[in-house]
UniProtKB/TrEMBL annotation:
CRISPR (clustered regularly interspaced short palindromic repeat), is an adaptive immune system that provides protection against mobile genetic elements (viruses, transposable elements and conjugative plasmids). CRISPR clusters contain spacers, sequences complementary to antecedent mobile elements, and target invading nucleic acids. CRISPR clusters are transcribed and processed into CRISPR RNA (crRNA). Acts as a dsDNA endonuclease. Involved in the integration of spacer DNA into the CRISPR cassette. Pfam families: Cas_Cas1. The keyword Ribonucleoprotein does not apply. This is CRISPR-associated endonuclease Cas1. It comes from Candidatus Methylospira mobilis. The gene is cas1c.
Amino acid sequence: MTVLQNTLYITTPDAYLRLEGETVCVMIEDEKRLQVPLHYLSAFVLFDHVMLSPALLGRCAEDGRSVVWLSRSGRFQARMEGPVSGNILLRQAQYRAADDNAQTLNIARAVVAGKLRNSRQLLLRGARETENAEEKDALVRVVKVLANQIRKIPSASDLDALRGFEGDAARMYFEVLPLVMKAQVRMDFPFDSRNRRPPRDRFNALISFLYALVLSDCRAALESVGLDPQLGFLHAVRPGRPALALDLLEEFRAPLADRLALTLINRGQLQARDFDEREGGAVLLNDAGRKTVIAAYQTRKQESIVHPLLQQNSLIGLLPHLQARLLARYLRQDVKHYVPYLHR
């Protein structure tokens, strides 16, 4: 269990959280392991069969404190919020845009362009840092292909064509991503393709977990500005699917999740012992591994960066909120285009 940035993360299975006066008590096997003032906490993130008392749930709903449930692997399962808030006029603009094929395609194009450009930047950095000439050539080759895919985006006449460009680019990106790992760690982190539900190797388990963390932040950012996280543009709308949060996630996969995953592996902060293999071939982070990743992710979010469009210093953790506000400005027609986050 960890308290970071006023968010309480509980990673111990079968923990029980209850309200005791104005404090939250974390009980594990009938033993009190942690007690935190309730006013200090703004959110709970719970992994793998963590329970809350009815009194605590009711208080969180009353105060507008969010509770997020994630699976053991970090996959989003549910979120509890208080009463729906936000600007109804903004949501109406979002709904109108979703019914307008041209606007939907324009936003989706921007999202895909941002994703591919950020993926390309990660591979470029890997090409600069490697000392292996063959691996450098392979990385540069895919960098050029991604640049060509980005140039094709304006020609996508519909969402299916656009998703085709994105899918082809993602496949090639993941084919060479292992080359950004140091050679000495590749045996412990073999990776040849993206797989999930469940992940079948350690690297897929790691990035799936990080994607879930970033997705939770993207969803919170959209809700904070009054947008409906369920109604997306690139991702199809399905019951219970946070399609707009998934759209926003695309811009941050490479710079926030993939880059951090590679850093943790290359620096030896995560090793094979931080993962468990399950029957059927599933691979998941264990308790120690999840704690390491969560701590590293929160530390990364506290680093400062200059936003490429706004030209202002911002904490990395606030980037999804800035992009959500930029999207809201576009939907309100305050600006002509939605500009995705472009990592330098």
